Description:
- The chain contains 14 helices and 7 strands.
- The chain is of the alpha/beta class.
- It binds manganese (II) ion (MN).
Amino acid sequence: xxxxxxxxxxIFDRPVKTVEDLLNKxxxxxxxxxxxxxxxxxxxxxxxxxxxxxxxxxxYIAHPLSVAAILADLRLDLESIVTGLLHDTVEDTxxxxxxxxxxxxxxVALLVDGVTKISQIKFRNSVEKQGENIRxxxxxxxxxxxxVLVKLADRLxxxxxLNHMPYEKQAQIALETLEIYCPLAGRMGIMSLKVxxxxxxxxxxxxDHYYQLVQHVKKTEHDTDRFIGEVRDKIAESLERSNVxxxxxxxxxxxxxxxxxxxxxxxxxxxxxxxxxxxxIVSNVSECYExxxxxHAMWKPIPGRFKDFIAMPKANNYQSLHTTVIGPGGERxxxxxxxxxxxxxxxx
Length: 348
Ligand code: MN
């Protein structure tokens, strides 16, 4: 049990420093793959970016390497990761698309070209133009969805390192990300990426409100832990007579979603009750329904909030039931009941 928070609640591991770190990440989910392609793409990119630096002062290769690592965290295929390593070479170095095609083949060349084209799109900065922006993005991605995945990973790393940008640019980039890339990540169903992007955008777009909310969340941490303990004990109690073994995790929802709720209802943090979300993990599908039965017997479910991803699985195949109930103290509590994910990832 524990309270997970902010970016730590993502699927993303610690930053990578070397190509060896990247290879280790890939080996975890593609144990039999021939990784010489990755090493070759890394050397190619490192050579092309020689003499270029990030605003942080690091050699430029740190950026494509990090983008590739994000793609590996998403467990994407080798061609996507190679594209991550090469994505800025055609736009920013002497390397041509033909060079990429000769060295890495048609598919990677097509992907790199797609990412380069997205970078050249001039987005219109207003909510009404959002549909148009997304359309431009879809056109640029051509027939391969991996183009957008690489672009999203690129934007995530740029947002993670946004503190090195001049102050006036930070808010502008954060707003563009909020209007275009966050909804896009949502549409693609990559919630971990959307959540991390949104909180990063919040931090740079409305820094005063962001840090205020962080303070509030910190102050109430103690109550939050106690409440999580209470929910856990109640569920354990209700399952006492059955053989179900379960784990439960409670976490605060991400800051941007709490903030949006405060704004739309014009309320203070203390008045936002449903800031906590729980995840109950069991061994099999029948136990999911069993736990759900106990929870609904104990706490009244809120109509319209129940979703059955067992009967209608998501694309990633993970099986889970989502419900919102009136929990202890009359507080709304979101609960996901799910089987242990074979690859141990929650959101993608
Ligand atoms: Mn880039």
